[in-house]
Structures are given as C-alpha cells and as structure tokens.
Amino acid sequence: MREVKLVKPEVWNFKVVGGEDAWKEVVYSARLSGVPPQVKDEKVFKMLVANDYGSALEHVTIKFDVKMSKGNAPEFLEHRMMSHSGYSTRYIEVSEGIEKKEKTYEVILPTHLLTQKEIREVMESSLHDSIKNYAQMISKETPREISRYVLPFAQAVGVYHVTINLRSLLNLLSLRLCVRSSPEFRCIASQLYAKLVEELPLLEGLIGCRGFMRGACPESGVTGVRVGKQHPFYPVCPYRNLESDAYIPTIEELRGGVEVKGFNREKAQMMREKIYGSWASWE
Q1: Domain ranges, residue 67
Q2: For the chain, what is the domain count?
Q3: Packing angle between helix 41-50 and helix 23-32, nearest 10 degrees?
C-alpha cells in the first residue's frame, strides 16, 4: 500500500490580476460614480473598503490555487461568487494528480487540536481502513468514480484553481477569520489574508472578521464565544473582553448601551497578526 501523508491546508499561486496597481481600477470606478477629484486615490480606495461600498471592488480580480480536505470543500464552495476548476476523483486516482512528486494518499487532520491519544488513534485507524479499501477497489479495476465513495472526509482532494473578485474575497475573509469558523477554513483564510495584504498593502488594517471590519460583532449571545464559559474547541475571541482597549461589542451589546472605552486599532492589529499566523501554520 502506498504512503499515507499528513499535509496542511494550503494556498499557492496567489495573484492579483493587474498587480500592485489593481486597486486603481476601483478608484476609477468610484470616480465614474461621482467621487470628486480632490479626494486622493488611496483615500478613495480605503473608504470604499471601510464603508463596504462593495460593487466597485468587483473590478479587482484575484486568482489562486488551494488544497483542502474533502469535507471542507462543500463549505468553501458555499462562497458562490467565484469561479473554480477542481481536482476530479472521477478521473484521477487519489494517490496521483497535480504537482505530486510521488504517489501518496494525502490527508488533512487537525491533529494539533487532538489532546486525547485514543481519539487520535481511532481517527487514524478509520482513515487507513478507508484508504486500504479504496486501493483494493482500484486494484480490482473498479472505476475511480465508484471507488471514491469510500474515501474519508479527511482526504486532501479539495484542490481548486479559483478566480474571485475582491468584494467576494473580503466577504469570505470576514466570515472565515472568525473564531467560530472551522479550524481548516481558518487556516485557509489566514493564508489568503496574508497573501492579499502582501499584494495590496493598502488593505492592511482594514481586513478581519466582521466585528473588526464593521466595529460591531454580529455573533450576539453566542455561548462559548462571546458570553458564558469558553467553548473548549474554539479559540478565544480577542475582542470579547470589555476591559480591554481592543474590545469590540456585539450588535446586541451596542444596542443595550454598553460603554466602549476606546479602541486601540494598532493593538488589535498586532493581536490579529499573531492569531492569524498561528492559524495559518496549522500547528
């Protein structure tokens, strides 16, 4: 039997069409809509992002490749405003495919989040049994499109070439950079965040979860995240502490008259960078 190899969710070949000046396309569109010439270009772009004037952002196109588990793929494809072409397990044997230097069965498991050894052993045993059954079916010339039905949730076959506009990508990030997002999607979103800010530095300080981007978190009353005892499988929300100068209220708290003492954007930015770095590393 071929090797079973643990891999991490990964984003590569990230490219903003038009390069570092692509944001100027947004400004051009805004000027057509009536933004006066005395407002500087960079300010126009940042204003459109900060105020969620999203239609103009659709003129910026981003392309990338991404690898994820079979189970995470349906979540990813829920973000409909994008085009994608995917790795086909109907035509390609799972141990083969694009950019594989050797025939391996790649799987994605959040082993760094598993504290119980016996649970990890159960998962790995089930995983190996599924892959063994798949390999046996292939060896007996069962069609790939039939054999794939025994593949496990963890199989790293969610491989896509993606084209997405900036508005849709910012929406994806605002949802998937939240502590309530799944660990695998947080890993992917954190990588996308880092690559996007690297390509378009003007976005630095403007991107994050919905609470950070809008100044109020929509996750009102969510037990284990914003209120009550911390959920054991969610990271701690960095903005939930009322006594912190990086506190962001929920919409419900804001309507209830909670006092916000001030928001240290620079501190919040440093906190986010550290958190996103740990999510992206998958460790």
Answers
A1: 3-22+60-208
A2: 1
A3: 90
Query: In the beta sheet, which residues pair with residue 283?
Result: none
Compute CA distances 230 → 1, 4, 102, 180, 234, whole Å. 43, 35, 43, 12, 8
Q: How many CB atoms lie within 10 A of CB 106?
A: 20
Give the H/E segment covering residue 275: helix 265-281
Tens digits of residue pLDDT in 39-77: 999 999 999 999 888 889 999 999 999 999 999 999 999
In the numeric block, the tokens 């070439």 are attached to: 161
Average pLDDT over residues 28-42: 91
Beta strands in 3-103 (DSSP E): 3-6, 10-16, 61-68, 82-86
pLDDT for the residue 118: 87
pLDDT per position as a tens digit, 151-166: 998 999 999 999 999 9
Residue 135 within any structural domain of the chain = yes
Sign of CA dihedral 114, 118, 121, 127: negative
Q: What distance in Å separates the CA atoms of residue 281 and residue 178, rounded to the nearest whole number?
A: 16
- Measured in Å, how far apart are the chain's first and last C-alpha atoms? 28
Quote the pLDDT of residue 101. 67
Task: Assess if residue 145 is contained within a domain.
Answer: yes
Q: Check: CB of residue 252 under 8 Å from CB of residue 220.
A: yes
Pairing of strands 61-68, 3-6: unpaired
| Closest CA relative to residue 215, chosen from 266, 265, 270 | 265
| pLDDT exceeds cutoff 90 at 91 | no
Total Cβ atoms within 10 A of residue 32: 9
